[in-house]
Write a structure and sequence with these properties.
The complex is a heterodimer of chains A (about 425) and B (about 55).
Chain A lengths: L2 H10 L9 H28 L14 H12 L1 H12 L9 H22 L8 H4 L6 H25 L8 H37 L11 E2 L2 E2 H29 L6 H35 L4 H4 L8 H19 L1 H5 L1 H28 L15 H24 L6 H4 L3
Antiparallel strand pairs in A: 1-2
Chain B lengths: L11 H33 L11
């Protein structure tokens, strides 16, 4: 590595913080490009050879991609919810993590949109949903809200770029970053409005399937109960994902980046919301069991198809729901870093499991007497093209962490 | 999608749906322009970096 490159790199690194040498950073980015290339090949196969290279079929038009889409959107809720807590409810301590929550949000929403770009098979026709909008469809609302919210996230990310050490020297960009910070409560409020509707509408999609008793729910006005359960589960899991990624970043950076009291606030709020969600979800499940039996779809029929037995319910609500809720509610358990990380991991896995159940298991359960049970397992093309965004997200976070001042407490916690 | 070209449907649902979308988009554009104009005026008035203090 020549000295010119190294000095150019060090001039871009925020003042008062230490980063690894440029050669190690480039090696790390290079390593990540390996799995990225596998994902790119898988994506090109989907576009070039059509979706028959996947295991999606007429029984399962919704598979891994849609479950992952719903999952990352729920995990990305940490961005809007942390913004809501910081700018609308004025929880001042969260200013130390809200920037990173935005970075994670961008990563999640970019992934969701890119996965959809593969899933629709013909991305060149992706604009149809905007131009020929079916305003009665919840998915149309989701498409509009996700697109607009991604714009909001980019605007929230903009002041971080403008605060880069070199860019910030230019007076206009310095002033622009300052005024964007001032406008952030309004931008956050728009983000909350958009997120509320698209998180809910993603839950509304299975909830209005009246031909599928496993997923169908009654509700309030035009919104099935799943609409509200999806919002609640997203804001319960989103902050945990922010904590988890912060912890991973700290492990890679080998230093503390955020004070424990900030993490504790997010974990406590997440735990309380998770308990409310679990109570409402249990009530919904019990009510649904009693209603479904009366319309000729006994509870046992929902869990009669291997591998979707009763264990699914126990795992989703018990192991991935109750256990993290207990840990997150206990002050003593929260202060134990290992337990906190396990709780966050279980909570995030729980949200993925819930989204998988609401999309894939909904399609698994036969609804007609002549229907046969058909199972679905994603193939490598689906896995590789989905995991692609995990590797790209790691690259995005690495570059952002290296060059932008995203952790206001880093200097104080790690004096040079 | 736009009120001035084809495929625009004039019914209450479209007004609410598209109205919300355009409200959000117009709000974002106004916020960005407001910040850019304020920053430009700061440069014109030579407001120093020390005058900007935020978390």
């Amino acid at each position: 590595m020549d000295s010119a490159s190294a000095s150019f790199d060090s001039a871009l690194i925020p003042e008062g913080v230490k980063r690894c040498k440029l050669k190690w950073f480039l090696l790390w980015i290079g390593i990540l490009h390996g799995p990225v290339m596998v994902g790119v090949v898988a994506t090109l196969m989907c576009w070039g050879l059509a979706l028959n290279v996947t295991y999606l079929n007429n029984n399962f038009p919704f598979g891994l991609w849609i479950a992952a889409d719903l999952g990352v959107i729920a995990l990305g809720a940490g961005a809007f919810f942390t913004g809501f807590l910081r700018y609308i409810l004025n929880i001042d301590e969260l200013k130390n993590i809200v920037n990173f929550a935005v970075v994670i949000g961008i990563m999640c929403y970019a992934a969701a949109q890119a996965i959809l770009g593969v899933d629709i098979g013909q991305p060149l026709r992706g604009w149809f949903i905007f131009w020929h909008a079916n305003v009665h469809s919840m998915l149309t609302e989701v498409a509009f809200c996700i697109t607009c919210y991604f714009m909001v996230l980019c605007i929230e990310y903009l002041p971080l770029i403008l605060e880069n050490r070199q860019i910030n020297k230019i007076g206009f960009f310095h002033g622009m970053a300052h005024h964007l910070h001032e406008a952030m409560p309004t931008i956050a409020a728009i983000g909350v409005f958009l997120s509320f509707f698209h998180q809910g509408s993603l839950g509304g999609v299975p909830g209005v399937l009246y031909g599928r008793p496993f997923a169908f729910r009654e509700g309030f006005l035009v919104w099935p109960w799943t609409f509200f359960l999806f919002i609640l589960s997203a804001i319960a899991a989103g902050p945990c994902f922010t904590i988890l990624i912060t912890w991973i970043t700290e492990k890679f950076a080998r230093k503390r980046l955020v004070k424990r009291n900030v993490i504790d606030i997010l974990a406590r709020i997440s735990g309380r919301l998770l308990v409310v969600y679990l109570v409402l979800k249990t009530i919904d499940t019990v009510y649904w069991v009693s209603i479904a039996g009366k319309v000729g779809a006994p509870f046992s029929s929902f869990y009669a198809n291997h591998p979707y037995g009763y264990w699914v319910l126990v795992l989703e609500l018990g192991i991935l729901g109750v256990i993290p809720a207990i840990i997150l509610l206990s002050t003593k358990a929260r202060q134990n870093e290992n337990l906190l990380v396990i709780a966050c991991l279980l909570n995030c896995a729980g949200i993925f499991m819930n989204r998988w159940i609401m999309t894939v298991q909904t399609l698994v359960v036969p609804v007609m007497s002549f229907d046969k049970f058909v199972s679905y397992h994603p193939n490598w093309v689906e896995y590789a093209s989905t995991l692609l965004y995990l590797w790209l997200g790691a690259i995005f976070i690495s570059i952002t962490y290296r060059y932008l001042p995203i952790f206001p407490q880093e200097k104080e916690l790690n004096p040079l | 999608m736009f009120p001035f070209i084809f495929d625009w449907v004039s019914d209450p649902v479209h007004y609410v749906f598209m109205g919300s979308v355009y409200t959000v988009l117009i709000s974002l554009v106004i916020i960005l322009h407001y910040c850019a104009i304020r920053a430009f005026l700061d440069v014109i008035c030579k407001k120093g970096k020390g005058d900007h203090n935020h978390d």
